[in-house]
Design brief:
Layout (H helix, E strand, L loop, with lengths): L3 E8 L2 H4 L14 H8 L3 E9 L5 E5 L11 H14 L16 H12 L10 E5 L3 E2 L7 E7 L3 E10 L7 E11 L4 E3 L7 E3 L6 E2 L8 E3 L2 E3 L2 E5 L2 E6 L4 E10 L5 E2 L2 E2 L3 E10 L2
Antiparallel strand pairs: 1-2, 2-3, 4-19, 5-19, 6-16, 7-15, 7-19, 8-9, 8-14, 8-16, 10-15, 11-14, 12-13, 17-18
Length: about 280
């Protein structure tokens, strides 16, 4: 790390380094060199700065994994100081001051970021829940979904994590709305009115990490990739009678460190009827 100045450093706690041989302390994977340092009890850097001799500077910070960290005054000051520094602004002796946000304010920010209307509203009715899908019990890899949604005006596609949010790469493959005359509408061509997910991004034609949707090495061009827990909400006109799709754990979430991951999820359908 030549030329890099550590700003925030710590030695990982013992519960991060006491793990079985071959396993990793985080199910999300990571850098093997970093794991070796953690296991050896070496200091880890969570924020750092770099000042180029030819002009310009950079600031790195790994602390944004949990948005709730924004309620920590020291966290916010560290982040704001870094932003101000790379912008060439003067930093007061006590750091950049800011108001401590309430949890309700953070929730409101996340609602805006995710898109309004993602969560099923009070009059929404659950109409389907699939059996549990687990990476450690990987059969079947695909679950066929075919559910009646006649007279519905809102559709909620929900993937729930069954345990902790870990490797739950959920894919809705070939989702279609079936009309009364038998014609179908490709759901991936519709614009959702809101979505939220536990990690990564919800993407059309890609998994949550941006790669191809893939199940047992087969690539599916038509689908929606996301990460449980997730909800995708749609409005659609009258005349739709059924919803069909295949639900799957994407190959990208199946294996960690050469072993089957702890990914576990269910797929759910909820609707709100015409009123």
């Amino acid at each position: 790390m030549k030329g890099v100045t550590p700003v925030l450093s710590a030695i990982a706690p013992l519960n991060m380094v006491k793990f079985k041989e071959g396993d990793k302390p985080s199910a999300h994977g990571g850098n093997p060199d970093a794991f070796a340092d953690v296991k050896a009890g070496k200091t880890q850097h969570f924020a750092w700065a770099f000042d180029w001799t030819k002009g310009g500077c950079g600031f790195g910070f790994t602390g944004f994994h949990f948005f709730a960290n924004m309620t920590n005054d020291s966290f916010r000051t560290t982040m704001l100081n870094g932003v101000a520094w790379v912008s060439g602004l003067e930093i007061p002796a006590g750091g950049i001051a800011s108001k401590t946000p309430a949890q309700a304010e953070l929730d409101a920010m996340m609602t805006v970021a995710r898109g309004a209307g993602a969560m099923p509203v009070g009059h929404a009715k659950p109409v389907l829940e699939t059996p549990l899908m687990m990476a450690k019990n990987p059969k079947p890899r695909l679950i066929d979904i075919d559910v009646a949604i006649k007279n519905a005006k809102e559709l909620y596609l929900v993937a729930s994590d069954q345990g902790r949010i870990s490797c739950d790469w959920a894919s809705w493959i070939e989702p279609r709305l079936i009309l009364a005359d038998g014609k179908g509408i490709d759901v991936t061509t519709l614009k959702w009115k809101g979505e939220e997910r536990g990690y990564g991004r919800t993407q059309i034609g890609k998994n949550n990490a941006g790669g191809p949707i893939q199940v047992e090495d087969q690539v599916y061009a038509n689908g929606i990739g996301t990460h449980a827990s997730s909800t995708i909400a749609y409005d659609f006109p009258a005349g739709v009678e059924r919803f069909t799709a295949k639900g799957a754990i994407d190959d990208g979430g199946m294996v960690r460190a050469g072993k089957l991951s702890d990914a576990a999820m269910r797929f759910h359908i909820s609707t709100a009827l015409l009123r």
